[in-house]
Design brief:
This is DUF1232 domain-containing protein. The protein is mainly alpha-helical. It is built from four helices and no strands. It has one domain.
Length: about 80
Amino acid sequence: MKWSKIWSLRRWGYVFRRVPRLLRSSRVPITDKLLLVVPALLYWVLPDVLPFVPIDDMAVTMLLMNWFVERAERKEQAGAKSMLK
């Protein structure tokens, strides 16, 4: 992904809208869903360098969300194409 997309507010709006839908989708494997949820929860729960300052926690979670949306949409599109054949 290009860095210009990471800084785009339009991209983040899209990511925030897609994450709940992809988490509920039956076409996205549970392992991919866990690859988002488990690291994010662990990062929020485990002690960090700056306690009581969750900015780094939010940044990591947002980067994980961005990665998850790209990965899940690729798999979702591949699954839809295979269903058409």
